[in-house]
Specification:
This protein is mainly α. It is built from ten helices and no strands.
Length: 182
């Protein structure tokens, strides 16, 4: 049976209180240590198991019912053991085993850089077409439009006042440029 003080601490953990969680986790940490010695989960180190144990502790605190006359430690121990068995089952399942050994992307950079596409990268074909259209547009522009186009495309211009002035008076030029490009 759980004391009223411990039950209040369990309720605080269920609501997300970090201090209560820390105290309760340290109180029941021997259960985690015992299960860590008994079970080996491939691919998990001690920190991973501690993280799983902390998640199970929060879920156990949220589902714990004082009226059932079961101690919280027993309830937590059963939930944690079941979670560890689930993890072992997951890692041992043959249908989820990869056909080939798993490789990190940075181990074979040359291969992956030529075979994987980067959706954030600029399409070279589209970039070439855009450059050609801008070159054609630049030829047809008046001197003021050329200045505006230059300022718009070179945002690192040193003369900020000139750029602001040109941008303020270039509304019509910008509309024409936009329609011409698209």
């Amino acid at each position: 049976m759980v004391s009223e003080k411990e039950f209040n601490m369990i309720r605080l953990v269920a609501k997300g209180d970090e201090q209560a969680f820390s105290r309760l986790f340290h109180k029941y940490y021997p259960i985690v240590r015992k299960l860590r010695r008994l079970c080996f989960i491939e691919g998990m180190d001690a920190d991973d198991l501690d993280q799983e144990a902390s998640l199970v502790l929060i879920r156990t605190a949220q589902r714990y019912r004082w009226e059932r006359s079961v101690s919280f430690g027993t309830f937590y121990s059963h939930n944690l053991r079941n979670r560890i068995y689930d993890l072992i089952r997951k890692y041992k399942a043959k249908k989820r085993a990869p056909q080939q050994p798993v490789q990190r992307l940075d181990e074979n950079r040359d291969f992956y850089s030529t075979t994987l596409s980067d959706p954030s990268a600029i399409n070279p074909e589209r970039l070439t077409l855009l450059k050609e259209r801008l070159a054609q547009l630049y030829i047809k522009c008046s001197p003021l439009e050329k200045d505006v186009l230059y300022v718009i495309l070179n945002l690192d211009t040193e003369n900020e006042l000139m750029r602001e002035h040109l941008l303020m008076h270039s509304r019509d030029v910008n509309i024409n440029i936009y329609h011409w490009i698209n």
